[in-house]
Amino acid sequence: MSAWGENPAYGHRAPNAGWVEVAPYTGKFTETDYMPGMQPAGFMPTLTSFFTLHFGSFGGPPVRWAYFFMGLAGAMLFYTGNLLWIESRRKKERKAGAVTQSRSTIVMGALTVGVTLGCVAGISLTIAAAKWLPGRVGDVAAWHSWIYYLTFLAAIGWAFARGAARAGWELLAFAGAMTLLIPITSLLAAAGLPGTGWSYRHTILVDVTALAGAAALFWMARIAYRRAESGPRDSVWGEAKARTVPQA
Question: 106 partner at 20 to 30 Å CA-CA among 51, 58, 130, 217?
């Protein structure tokens, strides 16, 4: 049988704990490869340190918040990096005489906004749903998977149907609305809505962070809308109906 434990002086193989195999009748440890502070010398402690770095399960809340902001920075780097790459390619193609976006660039633009913002919207919606699903559905994990992937795939489909320019600001606004649902659910609990079996007091930091994230997404949606309206007409970020322009 397995027994789980935590030792803050050592790293863990899981986010918050390690485990040891125990003989059920004698209580003796039969395997300690994954137990903090009891691992045999050699490769196991080194491997555990990799898991500790992956989960950020060291240094307490400051390290976990640092991981959170580094994750946001990485996501923004991917999103903005793709935007800049596509736009630089447009300028390069224009110097060569092209005045229309290539199909590969159009597809890349749609995937950039669809995949990235679909992830944001899906994660936000499933976090909001986490406050309502327990006790109401049988398989909570399956519901979370369905909510996320349906939102994610719908965003990609929307990006291809609407084009990168329009879908860019529309999906930013949609992701902002889904993120805003997180603090809204806590407000409903604070208002005493029947059936809310969880305490909003334990999610205040999450709600404040989500509120700031929603505001940032709405602000980005406004900028993307202006870019679609007034940006270069041969850009994938300009309105699709005006993507083709005469040669100067």
Answer: 217
